[in-house]
Design brief:
single chain; mainly alpha; three-stranded antiparallel β-sheet; two-stranded antiparallel ribbon; flat
Length: about 400
């Protein structure tokens, strides 16, 4: 910050060579309300950045600058009511974590008492080498009944109750961090052979519990992070200029993480039920001799695009609409050609049958009579004698 900007206390510490002294510094970022919109320097940017000493002069700061956009990421796991600051699983499980640490300490102390208990040693062994390892040998004179090494008190602790409570506290900690939800199928003690509907319901329940958290992390962490990264890449020239089609267009960010894909895949359950019921109604109408008018409400192209997006499938697997239109146009032309060929074949068979069908006019055929009729003029009335 410069020696000229610090307080007198810091200058004195620097002069005495106390370069490792702790000095509290505050970095405040807030909206700048009194800025000149005609200027583009750091002191007139939308966000103000101020560094100042915590115990220094209140009318003097170490440095003042600014940001074009809010530069920090402040995601919150959960928010209670109108609170500004959020809370998370660590805050909920803090009491259980402290209890678990204390119980683990007591368990270790109990094991130490049983495996390495305090001893009472006769005074004759003071300042003597005593080998307490397994198989060790210690030389001493003949001793009486009171000259042996033994435990100070009988240590026989029952740790089962403590271990049971430790397991209970561990379960509460895992529940606070949603570990049981992420391993819902693995930790299920019931029959592991579940139907697809049951598995879908379990995933839907998981996403229902984590949905608000994921949405908040998307809005407060991932989306701002991508916006900041993209803005800095644009400022440094890492991204080429956008084409004219993207001018004044809002870019939507689509997250492709495993949890984001799982959250979108939950929507497929409702789509599957809708399509299955629609097909059932269509089959019922067909069996009843009715026209399956219900299928007129189903947009197959939009279903294919939306369903693949919900499942996070590779976009290359779905053919673009313009290519689909070209394929359908070729199929329609092929069908028209096939119909025209069938009609020509039918006309040829009719002419062949007419040529082989005899009539009563002197052994001629139906084809001969038809040809003579057209050659004489179809529909021309024959002349009538006068007075008729």
């Amino acid at each position: 910050f410069g020696i000229e900007n610090v307080s007198n206390h810091v200058k004195q510490l620097y002069a005495r060579g106390q370069l490792d002294a702790y000095i509290g510094i505050v970095h405040a970022i807030e909206p700048r309300e009194d800025r000149d919109l005609t200027k583009r320097d750091s002191l007139n940017m939308p966000w103000k950045s101020v560094y100042y000493e915590l115990n220094g002069r209140h009318d003097k700061c170490l440095r003042e600058s600014g940001y074009k956009a809010f530069p920090t990421l402040c995601p919150r796991w959960a928010v209670a009511g109108g609170d500004i600051y959020g809370n998370g699983p660590g805050m909920e499980a803090l009491g259980d974590i402290k209890q678990l640490m204390q119980e683990q300490l007591r368990k270790s102390q109990g094991i130490d008492y049983m495996t390495n208990p305090p001893l009472q040693v006769p005074t004759s062994l003071k300042n003597r080498d005593v080998d307490r390892l397994p198989g060790g040998i210690t030389f001493r004179d003949a001793a009486g009944n009171g000259d042996k090494i033994e435990s100070m008190f009988d240590v026989r602790l029952d740790l089962n109750h403590l271990l049971a409570d430790i397991q209970d506290v561990r379960g509460r900690v895992r529940g606070s961090f949603y570990a049981d939800m992420f391993l819902m199928l693995q930790n299920d003690s019931q029959d592991a052979r579940k139907t697809a509907t049951e598995v879908a319901e379990l995933h839907e329940e998981k996403m229902l519990m984590l949905g608000p958290v994921l949405e908040r992390l998307h809005n407060e962490l991932l989306t701002p992070l991508i916006d900041l990264t993209f803005a800095r890449m644009m400022a440094t020239g890492l991204v080429p200029k956008p084409p004219p089609e993207l001018h004044d267009q809002q870019l939507n960010i689509e997250l492709v993480s495993m949890l984001a894909q799982a959250q979108r895949a939950i929507s497929t359950n409702g789509v599957d039920r809708f399509v299955n019921n629609l097909g059932t109604i269509a089959v019922m109408q067909k069996n009843a001799g009715m026209t399956d008018t219900v299928m007129d409400k189903f947009d197959a192209d939009y279903w294919a695009d939306t369903y693949s997006d919900m499942l996070g499938a590779d976009p290359e697997l779905v053919i673009a609409n313009d290519k689909v239109a070209f394929i359908r146009k070729g199929r329609a032309q092929a069908m028209q050609q096939a119909q025209a060929a069938a009609a020509a074949e039918s006309a040829a068979k009719t002419a062949q049958m007419a040529g082989n069908t005899p009539t009563q006019n002197g052994g001629s055929t139906a084809l001969d009579d038809t040809t003579n009729l057209f050659s004489q003029g179809l529909g021309r009335p024959s002349p009538q004698p006068q007075g008729a």
